[in-house]
Target: DinB family protein
Amino acid sequence: MSSPAPLEIWLRGPIAGVPPLLQPVAHALLQARDEVRTAMQDFPPELVNERPGGVASVGFHLQHLAGVLDRLLTYARQETLTEAQFAAFNAEVPPLAISHDTVEKLVQEFSSTVEKALAQLRATDEATLTEVRGVGRAQVPSTHLGLLFHAAEHTMRHLGQLLVTAQWVRSLA
Model:
């Protein structure tokens, strides 16, 4: 008899040190990290750039997950993007140069970005959540909470696309 599947992260209780209003953000990011690790385990690097039906590749989603999370967290801190962040954004355009450890490196980069996000959430004062934050070069107004929520939502959106594309390209291989 197999053991029951572990509970999803949001059902396991609060994440230590994360303010109560930001628990859903932390839960979503941790869930995404776990699902990326599972889905990419033993993923063949030669499939990273495949685009069946013209959809975005697994490599794009892996890069974008880390990159967009990093950028949204920067705006949430009321900072502007660095040259390195712009370079990373421009590098999200496939195809990726692939090697035997491409997938592992991309998964680790996303995992590290999630850890940085958790540290930022732990350091966030809930009293700032309704404060205005500018997004992008145009500084389109949002709120601190809006940015953090969108970071979680956008991460989950690309996770879903990654999971489907990874399964699709594996089935075609």
About this structure: The chain has one domain: 19-172. The longest helix spans residues 144-172. Helices lie at 23-40, 58-76, 83-90, 102-122, 144-172.
